[in-house]
Design a protein that fits this description.
The chain is mainly α. It folds into two domains: 3-197, Fumarase/aspartase (N-terminal domain) (Fumarase C, Chain B, domain 1); 205-504, Fumarase C, Chain A, domain 2 (Up-down Bundle). The protein has 19 helices and nine strands. The strands form four sheets. A three-stranded antiparallel beta sheet has the order 4-6-7. The protein has a two-stranded parallel ribbon with strand order 1-2. Strand 8 and strand 9 form a beta hairpin. The longest helix is centred in the last third of the chain and has 32 residues, at 419-450. Belongs to the PAL/histidase family. Pathway: Amino-acid degradation; L-histidine degradation into L-glutamate; N-formimidoyl-L-glutamate from L-histidine: step 1/3. Its main location: cytoplasm. The modification 2,3-didehydroalanine (Ser) is found at residue 144.
Length: 508
């Protein structure tokens, strides 16, 4: 049985993907259990001693100075969840909900949150038995963590809210009953521990960064097909050009292009047909490479965040202390997700310009709009329109969310990150990029079809063969969105990258 063991310290992005998408079972490590129990024992002792500690025996936010009696402590935690469940908008996809649940359980397993081990196990049981809370996309400021969406997750744990179970949307209580999971009564600190963290923005970010790596590799493959179909000059990818400007992503991209195009009879050397290519061909390593470096940076931020304690207050049982800090603030993720959105947008920007070079007969020696009988047929004319529309939308979406802040909780929480908005925007941008690249994949394949029976590059030949298994060349106009969806599916599923890597080795 495939499983992921969580301990709060060693979770990988690939583990998140396996649980979220592939249904891996989740288990709690023995060391994590010990840490959870020790932290909980300290919380219980402080409650018995009547200590005044934020979120344990006080209200929340601006109500932090209101002391709550021991008799009202459980009601305080329940009230926190039901009052904070203010999410709106569309529902998160199941894979994101599963990632959220996993990341919250992993954060709790670090042993700094003060929850009972039975509460963590309830969350894990929900994951393993397929009880998926209905969590709405909008409503988080990204500090104090993802309060609203995480509250929707916890509602189901206490028998409220709604959840999906076996494909059926049910009340939270009914879903838990059908799955054979006992609902819980929250005790001191637990409500706050479950919702005060960055797990929603990080869950969206983890899945998006995983997909972004695939998109970055895809961009190199598809670009190489366009270079080939336009008889591009490969001297610009010569290794010494990039070694004298040693940006890592740039060097990787140039190497990828030369590997993919190796053996092609269509590519040229400078001076054979023309002295130099337009920037969208000549500067692919510089453009794609910068995005690769950005993606690598964001990946490091996400990998750190998925193994972090991001709630408040934190329990340091070895020092007998409870400290109220600010690890719930999503600024590290907010900036990273905005950066990711910008980096991905650029991959679509340059892709759309390459599409234009493919369809514009004034810029190449191919049939106008890549169709034999132009006028009677429109060919790829409107496909380029769609790519342009997606690129334009990305320019709006790429505006940083993290530069905005609206004070909340009567100005107690007077700077917030908007990190969850940044993460959702990055994911929307990623979708648009996959469609733009899908259109370029189609268009470059059509252009290569017009080049006739020629020898293609080692990698581009594999990419061309794959698309031809699913989509025939465009001999006359047909319904284009079907082809676009098929080509884009080959990209988002990872099949294109896997197919090419089987031939040329790992794409960097």
């Amino acid at each position: 049985m495939n499983k992921v063991i969580i301990d709060g310290q060693n979770l990988k992005i690939e583990d998140v993907v396996n649980v979220a998408r592939n249904g891996y079972i989740v288990e709690l490590s023995g060391e994590a259990k010990e840490r959870i129990e020790k932290a909980r024992a300290l919380v219980d002792r402080f409650v018995e001693e009547g200590r005044v500690e934020y979120g344990i025996t006080t209200g929340f936010g601006k109500f932090s100075d209101v002391v709550i009696s021991k008799d009202d402590a459980k009601k305080l935690q329940r009230n926190l969840i039901v009052s904070h469940a203010c999410g709106v908008g569309e529902e998160f996809d199941t894979e994101i909900v599963r990632a959220i649940m996993l990341l919250r359980a992993n954060a709790l397993s670090k042993g700094y949150s003060g929850v009972r081990i039975s509460t963590v196990k309830t969350l894990i049981d929900m994951l393993n038995k397929g009880v998926h809370p209905v969590i709405y996309e909008k409503g988080s400021l990204g500090a104090s963590g993802d309060l609203a969406p995480l509250s929707h997750m916890v509602l189901v744990m206490i028998g409220e809210g709604e959840a999906y179970y076996n494909g059926e949307r049910l009340s939270g209580k009914e879903a838990m009953e059908k799955a054979g999971i006992d609902i819980i009564e929250l005790v001191e600190k637990e409500g706050l521990a479950l919702i005060n963290g960055t797990q929603v923005m990080t869950a969206v970010g983890a899945l998006t960064i995983y997909d972004a790596v695939n998109i970055s590799k895809t961009a190199d493959i598809v670009a190489s097909m366009t270079v080939e179909s336009l008889k591009g000059i490969t001297d610009a990818y010569y290794h010494r050009v990039h070694e004298v400007r040693p940006q890592k992503g740039q060097i990787k991209c140039a190497k990828n292009l030369l590997t993919l195009l190796d053996g092609s009879s269509l590519t040229t050397k400078q001076g054979e047909i023309r002295v130099q290519d337009a920037y969208t061909l000549r500067c692919i390593p510089q453009i794609h490479g910068a995005s690769k470096d950005a993606i690598e940076y964001v990946k490091r931020v996400v990998e750190t965040e998925i193994n972090s304690a991001t709630d408040n207050p934190l329990i340091f049982e070895d020092e007998d202390r409870v400290i109220s800090g600010g690890n719930f603030h999503g600024q590290p993720m907010a900036l990273a997700m905005d950066f990711l959105g910008i980096a991905l947008s650029e991959l679509a920007n340059v892709s759309e310009r390459r599409i234009e070079r493919l369809v514009n007969y004034q810029l190449n020696d191919l049939p106008p709009f890549l169709t034999k009988k132009g006028g009677l047929n429109s060919g790829f004319m409107i496909a380029q329109y769609s790519a342009a529309a997606l690129v334009s939308e990305n320019k709006v979406l790429a505006h940083p969310a993290s530069v905005d802040s609206i004070p909340s909780s009567a100005n107690q929480e007077d700077h917030v990150s908007m990190g969850t908005i940044a993460a959702r925007k990055a994911r929307n941008i990623l979708y648009n990029v996959s469609r733009v690249l899908g259109i370029e994949y189609l268009a470059s394949s059509q252009a290569l079809h017009f080049r006739g029976d020629v020898k293609l590059g080692k990698g581009t030949q594999r990419a061309y063969n794959l698309i031809r298994k699913h989509i025939e060349p465009l001999n006359e106009d047909r319904v284009m969105y079907v082809d676009i969806n098929k080509a884009s599916s080959l990209i988002t599923s990872g099949e294109l990258v896997r197919t090419v890597e089987n031939e040329v080795g790992e794409i960097l």
